[in-house]
Amino acid sequence: MKTSAILCFAVLLTACGPNGASNSQTTTKTTTTITTTAPGEPAPPLVPPTALTQANLDRVQTDMSPAEVQSIFGAPTSSDSKPIPIVGGTETTYSYQSGSSAVTIVFKNNQVKEKSGTFGS
Q1: Count of structural domains, the chain
Q2: Torsion-angle region of residue 110: left (phi > 0), alpha (psi -120 to 50) or beta?
Q3: Helix (H) or strand (E) holding 55
Q4: What is the pTM of this model?
Q5: Burial class, 22, CB count within 10 angstroms (exposed 0-12 / middle 13-18 / buried 19+)
Q6: Is position 42 within any domain?
Q7: Residues 77, 67: contact at Cβ < 8 Å?
Q8: Which CATH number does the domain housing residue 60 bear?
Q9: How far is residue 12's CA from residue 3's CA, in Å, rounded to a whole number?
Q10: 116, 93, 77, 63 alpha-carbon torsion, rounded to 10°
Q11: Beta strand pairing status for 2-16 and 101-108?
């Protein structure tokens, strides 16, 4: 994995007294680091392998929001949204995959309505 420093700068602020003499100094340094994947290197998994457990699936309750589900499982491996015919609104399916374990969560209008999972060893 390649780490790149994107932004690094220092600011020097000087306050001057009435005769031009410096009477205080503040230095601020900001560094932002972004981790990227080098070409040909596999991307890190979005779902931690330890997140896909029956115990975590049991924590998911009817009417939870997508944000609440993501706080348990992390970002989905894939998601799909489509309109709900006649009734209206949106149905969104989150799929999580790690090794031989898989979890599917179905939201209707941003609320959990169905959940299922298979868990490998």
Answers
A1: 2
A2: left
A3: helix 54-59
A4: 0.60
A5: exposed
A6: no
A7: no
A8: 3.30.1450.10
A9: 27
A10: -70
A11: unpaired
